[in-house]
Amino acid sequence: MKLTSMDISTTASASSIVFDALRKAIIQGQLEEGEPLRQDEIARLFNTSRIPVREAISRLEEQGLVKTQRYKGAVVAGLSPKETEEIFDLRALVEPEIIKNAVPRMSKEILASAREKCAAFSASDNPMEWGDLNRDFHETLYSASDLKFFREIAHNAIDRVERQIRAQLVMSNGMERAGREHFGIMDACEAGDADLAADLTGEHILGAKKSLLAHIQDR
Fold first, then answer.
1. Quick check: 69 pLDDT over 70?
2. Which residues, if any, are the signal sequence (predicted)?
């Protein structure tokens, strides 16, 4: 199992630490679709009992990142093309509303941080960084929004398709196109044009969905 071992035997929040480590490994593709999550093995890696591991796996199952299969137990959940499409469509409904709400509330500090992350994304030549840089850019802009529940929905939806987003960015024109679209969204935010920022965000998400589904069908 591709997890870094860690001694958390004396840590009060053992369940949260295991949860965060498993979630990151799933999202980044270190744990692959269908890979079993054996509680005893994970407990041994973290030098803890099976109780916090069981709690962490239950939380991951609630988020849709893990599913329980008969005879196999907990495994890393996958997504069908239909499920992937549904999640991207949900994002295209929710995230434009978040950024529309956020634009009037964006401070100079948030805009400067987002501009820096936008540039870092386009400048990076390391595919392993692209997923994190992409997410950092969007979530920096969204952080100005006071639509708490919308942001939670978007956060969980992005978690579900993070592996697919990373694959989409690595495709031939995924990174280049995403970079151009990021600069367009950034310019709209700096101009205070909330409607344009929302429209561009929706188009950005639906364009990524179209490219990703085409990639899945071609495999």
1. yes
2. none
